[in-house]
Amino acid sequence: MTTKNKPQAKAGTEPRARDADRSQKDILDAALSEFAAHGLGGARMDRIAERAGLNKRLIYYYFESKESLFLAVLERAYENIRSEERQLNLTREEPTEAIRRLIAFTWNYYLAHPEFLTLLNSENLHRARHLKQSKQILTMHSPLIQTLAGVLERGHQAGVFRAGVDPVQLYISIAGLSYFYLGNCHTLSTIFDRDLLGTRALVERLSHMTDLVLGYLVRD
Amino acid sequence: MTTKNKPQAKAGTEPRARDADRSQKDILDAALSEFAAHGLGGARMDRIAERAGLNKRLIYYYFESKESLFLAVLERAYENIRSEERQLNLTREEPTEAIRRLIAFTWNYYLAHPEFLTLLNSENLHRARHLKQSKQILTMHSPLIQTLAGVLERGHQAGVFRAGVDPVQLYISIAGLSYFYLGNCHTLSTIFDRDLLGTRALVERLSHMTDLVLGYLVRD
Amino acid sequence: MTTKNKPQAKAGTEPRARDADRSQKDILDAALSEFAAHGLGGARMDRIAERAGLNKRLIYYYFESKESLFLAVLERAYENIRSEERQLNLTREEPTEAIRRLIAFTWNYYLAHPEFLTLLNSENLHRARHLKQSKQILTMHSPLIQTLAGVLERGHQAGVFRAGVDPVQLYISIAGLSYFYLGNCHTLSTIFDRDLLGTRALVERLSHMTDLVLGYLVRD
Amino acid sequence: MTTKNKPQAKAGTEPRARDADRSQKDILDAALSEFAAHGLGGARMDRIAERAGLNKRLIYYYFESKESLFLAVLERAYENIRSEERQLNLTREEPTEAIRRLIAFTWNYYLAHPEFLTLLNSENLHRARHLKQSKQILTMHSPLIQTLAGVLERGHQAGVFRAGVDPVQLYISIAGLSYFYLGNCHTLSTIFDRDLLGTRALVERLSHMTDLVLGYLVRD
DNA sequence: TATGAATGAGAATTCATTCAT
DNA sequence: TATGAATGAATTCTCATTCAT
């Protein structure tokens, strides 16, 4: 995105068009919704343009093709979750509480951003074809793992956590517990004939996941 | 063009598998691969016909439309996993071992049937639209949950398992731990820059998941 | 083109559709006109379908893409002129008369088939990209050159023609004399402000070309 | 982006070539390449702007539209060849040598300016639509024909050339002999499987053409 | 003079589906 | 049961051109 000083419209007035940054953002927002709702294959450039309130041609002007638009959307989605994760400040937290908060954060983030789940599914369907072309992705995730490794280490030193826990394995487990429940809630609630998204159910799930992970981690 | 000379079964021999059955099976097999590889939106009827070695028109003859073909594929996939699960015979097993085997089974099944994962993702993308039309699905899954409930109960009575574990929650957790790891392995191995499908990695994952679940369940 | 026995309609009745060979021929005819009139870049698949009286999709069914349709058209055009050339039977002709007839044939063929000229121009604009992929082209043209070489040889032995004339050079000259006049007649008649396509002009041109070539060839 | 500091001409020095002129020339140069490489239909205004290192909008500022840009390019191309032809000074030359030099000049000009050939092809494809709108074209070409007529006349009077040769016919023949060979060299070298652009081949062709024309013209 | 942003009308190509046999 | 021929409606992407500054 080109960051030049645009004629910053006064509060309240929509800065209508001729604003490259704004247009690009609108396209990315619309594309996120569309890709999340229909997958890469099912997404329609027409609908993206319409949702963005912009001419279809402009999408190609800023983003080469459907595929590279998809990558741009994906990168922004990852940036977003990792950025929010960073704000958790797990480093300063007491280990048990840190794990509790990481689980809750992951759960709430997926709950608030269901698009993120379907986006990842799409990308996996395509064997991470787009992500593998990304240059920024690699550096984005290691801090998270380092932080988690630190929490586990501190917990162990304090005699609270069991030893030898691989932070990557644990992260995948924590994510997977939320991901599968929320990402597959449509089929799950159909085959188990049970509402999985009611307030009560959500509270229970978070509680179950926390019990599960801490029941495993905490030495007594 | 499939010009295989069928043995034109004489009375008494080989009473099943007329060409019609065979054709339908071929179509379902081809469709499974195609839907799994490209999702519902990305799947191509042409390719399915080609993979099945049959004329495209025939697909419509046996299966109304792309959508109902998808449902047929989905139902068969669920039948398959539930049928294999039944053969686990968890009812007779010692509780801890039963859980251990359920985890291992789920893991190995997903590993052997990656199509199942992408199929479910597709169906969830479409909000279980197809599954909800199915009549047979509901009855298919309750036995599994009942069996698991039994295992948990027996484990609790034996003083081995903790009390108050919801079998549906636990089943979702067990499935999710495998599902997320295997279904998202392309993005995960990209962002964590780590091979998740090597023999060593697979063994470690199964071990981690078993520790996690039993570490939670088992009271000491 | 698949040559199977089609339900050969009775004389007078148009064998309407469902006739693969006929459809392919119609497409090729329409494509020839369109490519000739607008060049490869300017040709429109829509118009070709319309001219052929067939669905656009069918063009792709029979001919992969615009480019391979172009090649198919080109090959057929070459086949056509070389086939007519063969019927000239120059081998049996007296040398001077043979040359005379070759010039006249070339001239009249270009005159009757102006599409051929623009087609070749298009292909040259694209540096013979399509033709180079053709497998049949190479064998198609050598007979012509061999025949011409024979005529020159016989003429020389009879003491009528000069020695050492390269048949390829001569063929290119004969073709070029007609080609440039007819292919560029629009610009030429504009810049010289002179009607080049009137009956009189045509007769004069053929006469001039014949004089030119024979004036050079014939030893006196 | 062309950011060359123009010498901001002081009074008396360098009165011409403001940026405007330079920009127009850049556009024409770029357009010539583009039209020659892709034809009128295949040429892209975007690429012309890029090649010229200027904004696309500027093209429309100076040249109404793609079509009139094409005409401008065409006119400049004709001006160029006629201007060089004039410098041949055939009037003062001995007739045989004059013809020889005209052939060689035409050949070498086409060889050095292959764009000219494809440009003419494009214009003929469009039936000289653009050229017919030009006001300057008509006056541009008659001097050439007059000069050639003079040469033929002098040659005849000297008893060297045959009588009754139409200068327009002869000019078209001379041009055509080079034009077809060079303009169609891609298809010709493909179908005859022979390198037509090697040094040796070029020398032979010029020699052949000269022999052909003089063999016809010169009375012995 | 010069430019980046934006667009409507098309371009080739694709796709699920139906027709006729 | 089986198939090749045919199609209408999209779908991605392109292009000459104009707007606003």
List how many beta strands of chain A DSSP finds.
Answer: 0
Highest-level CATH class of the largest domain in chain A: Mainly Alpha
CA distance, first residue to last residue of chain A: 52 Å
Q: Can you write the helix and strand succession of chain A as a string?
A: HHHHHHHHHH
Coarse structural class of chain A = mainly alpha
Textual characterization of the structure:
Four copies of one chain form a homotetramer. By secondary structure, chain A is mostly helical. Chain A folds into two domains: 14-63, Arc Repressor Mutant, subunit A, CATH 1.10.10; 73-217, Tetracycline Repressor, domain 2 (Orthogonal Bundle). Helices cover 70% and strands 0% of the residues of chain A. In chain A, helix 5 (95-112) crosses helix 6. Chain A starts with 19 loop residues before the first helix and ends with a helix. The relative contact order of chain A is 0.10. Mean pLDDT of chain A is 90; it is low at 1-16. Chains in contact: A-B, C-D. At the C-D interface, helix 1, helix 6, helix 7, helix 8 and helix 9 of C face helix 1, helix 6, helix 7, helix 8 and helix 9 of D. The first copy, chain A, binds a DNA duplex (21 and 21 nucleotides) through residues 17-20, 23, 44-46, 54-58, 60-61, 65-66.
